[in-house]
UniProtKB/TrEMBL annotation:
GO CC, any one term: cytosol
Keywords assigned: ATP-binding, Kinase, Nucleotide-binding, Transferase
Gene3D superfamilies: Acetylglutamate kinase-like (3.40.1160.10)
GO biological process: homoserine biosynthetic process; lysine biosynthetic process via diaminopimelate
InterPro entries assigned to the protein according to its UniProt record, in alphabetical order: AceGlu_kinase-like_sf (IPR036393), Asp/Glu/Uridylate_kinase (IPR001048)
Pfam families given in the database record: AA_kinase
Protein name (Swiss-Prot/TrEMBL): aspartate kinase
Species for this entry: Bhargavaea cecembensis
Catalytic activity: L-aspartate + ATP = 4-phospho-L-aspartate + ADP
Length: 242
């Protein structure tokens, strides 16, 4: 089994999602079972991005619970679209969300921690090879949706990788992998082909970390192997292990 996490830029439009589906086909042939975790589509300024949804809810001054409900809509929409487009490409899948997913949240709205109960997830997934899951959110014991902080879909992917015993968690980004610096600021920035968790963590102390630091810390604590790579290029990316 493999977990594949597709970020907002990878989910942005139909052309980008076709590239994602090519990666999913490859994963099915190589690993059999695939769990796909998606972020909201696009970046700040795009209508369904998390930043745009948070901007709307901030302007209304709504409660933290209502803000989490609004913020989580982007991933729900993205997961529904990915599921539908996979079906159109002949790839049967199960869209698993909310309390059906077994993904539980604990802690405050906007920065909750994640846990996972396996029985409801496997019961819904059944015998299909592919599951599609919205990242960034889960359901509390009180039945309320909570989100997991900026970049929280990365945490969803790593927690699922740990709990489901995945061989590896793949992150598909708009960069070739983990770089020594932001390539938009330093075009000749070096790509790291492999890193330890300890080597990765300092590289996440930037405004735009390649993956969420909370997710990387969880991976380090649970020894979940990571592969951070480009969704649009066939390049080796960066492997992160102990």
């Amino acid at each position: 089994m493999i977990i594949q996490k597709f970020g907002g830029v990878a989910m942005r439009d139909s052309s980008s999602r076709k590239a994602c589906i090519r990666h999913i086909r490859r994963a099915i042939s190589e690993h059999g079972k695939v769990v796909i975790v998606v972020s909201a589509m696009g970046r700040a300024g795009d209508p369904y991005s998390t930043d745009s949804l948070l901007s709307i809810s901030d302007s209304l001054g709504i409660s933290p619970h209502a803000q989490d409900v609004a913020a989580g809509c982007g991933e729900l929409l993205a997961s529904a679209i990915m599921s539908a487009e996979l079906e159109m490409e002949g790839i049967e899948n199960e869209l698993i969300y909310g309390s059906r997913s077994g993904i539980l949240t604990e802690g405050p709205f906007g920065s909750a921690d994640l846990k996972m109960e396996l029985e409801p997830f496997f019961r819904i997934w059944g015998d299909r090879n592919v599951a599609v899951v919205p990242g960034f959110q889960g359901t509390g014991r009180d039945g309320r949706i909570r989100t997991t902080g900026r970049g929280g879909s990365d945490l969803t992917a790593v927690v699922m990788g740990d709990m489901l015993g995945a061989e590896i968690v793949e992150f598909f980004k708009d960069v070739p992998g983990v770089m020594e610096a932001d390539p938009s600021l330093k075009p000749d920035a070096k790509l790291f082909e492999s890193l330890t968790y300890a080597e990765l963590l300092p590289l996440l102390e930037t405004e735009r970390p390649v993956i969420q630091k909370k997710a990387a810390l969880y991976a380090a604590m649970t020894s979940v192997p990571l592969h951070i790579r480009s969704f649009s290029e066939e390049c080796p990316g960066t492997f992160v292990t102990g």
